[in-house]
UniProtKB/TrEMBL annotation:
It comes from Panacibacter microcysteis. This is beta-lactamase. The keyword Hydrolase applies. Pfam families: Beta-lactamase2. It catalyses: a beta-lactam + H2O = a substituted beta-amino acid. One of its GO terms (biological process) is response to antibiotic. The keyword Hydrolase applies.
Length: 300
């Protein structure tokens, strides 16, 4: 009986703090995403009123480059433990080369040195894959990062690439996987200082320096602080954003997979939808704002 009573207390407490769904916003988002040619998941959390809107928010999606948030977690965990130093110098070697592409770090010469802090910046700001894979290794690899994620309650967010035992997941989701809700909760815990604690402020600053700003961020006034990470592969486009609006701060994520439109142009269907969602949310939470955003799509 004692255990049953304790269980009931926990259940009642959880129910009392259950987040309410914003029915009006939920309906607006459902209308917005209707007809999308692919699978889509959305999670929105109104931080002022503690209300949510969600569509397939617990469905697992490929992270693409959003996997770099768990890698950041792994690196900051080692820095917090003093196993690494934020400004320590690292030596780049040709063995770290990933691909030509647009990676800045991949253009480094063998034996060149760079601060760890700058490698982190490259991973998050320009989404440099060479930097990211280097940091994944420095964090202890995917297995260690996944262990940290599990200890923090993130059961669906995982690093798959170069992680023993995750080969099947990698074939399904690529480098990493998560759900719209879990990655939004990770961002929220960083914002609130409830992820690693002391390092969270630095993590938030790092996520606030985003080069790729033509999707969700394009629909938010540039004077508003945002923290963001996005990701893209051919058939999947994703973004997670914290918007520190003075009127009504909020967090939202949008994930897609199995997209019919695999193009890399401005008018890619998933990117247009991402801009539309961001514009909808900004106007919804800031109804008196008269800021004019750039178009969500362009004429061909």
């Amino acid at each position: 009986m004692h255990r049953t009573f304790l269980f009931l207390l926990v259940f009642i407490a959880a129910a009392a703090h259950a987040q309410q769904t914003d029915a009006k916003l939920q309906a607006a988002i459902a209308t917005l995403v209707k007809g999308f040619n692919g699978n889509i998941g959305v999670y929105v959390h109104d931080l002022k009123h503690d209300k949510i809107a969600a569509i397939n928010a617990d469905t697992v999606f490929p992270t693409a480059s959003i996997v770099k948030m768990p890698i950041l977690l792994g690196i900051m965990n080692r820095i917090q433990k003093r196993e690494l130093q934020y400004h320590q110098r690292l030596t780049y070697t040709d063995s770290l080369f990933y691909n030509e592409g647009d990676d800045i770090l991949a253009s480094f010469k063998d034996s060149a040195t760079i601060e760890l802090s700058k490698v982190i910046m490259l991973m998050l700001t320009t989404s440099d894959n060479t930097a990211s894979l280097w940091l994944q290794g420095l964090a202890g690899g995917g297995t260690q990062i996944n262990s940290i994620l599990d200890s923090l309650g993130f059961t669906n967010t995982r690093v798959n690439s170069r992680t023993p035992g995750r080969e099947t997941n990698r074939s399904l989701y690529g480098w990493g996987q998560t759900t719209p809700k879990e990655i939004a909760q990770m961002m929220e815990r960083i914002v609130m200082g409830h992820l690693l604690g002391a390092p969270d402020g630095q993590m938030l600053r790092l996520l606030g320096r985003q080069y790729w700003d033509e999707e969700a961020l394009s629909q938010i006034p540039p004077g508003v602080f945002t923290a963001d990470k996005n990701g893209a592969v051919d058939a999947s486009r994703d973004e997670i954003v914290y918007v520190n609006s003075a009127v009504n701060p909020y967090i939202f994520s949008i994930f897609t997979k199995n997209n019919k439109d695999t193009s890399w142009q401005y008018n890619n269907e998933a990117w247009v939808l991402t801009r539309k969602l961001s514009a909808l949310l900004w106007k919804y939470y800031n109804p008196k704002s008269n800021w004019q955003a750039p178009p969500v799509s362009k004429e061909e």
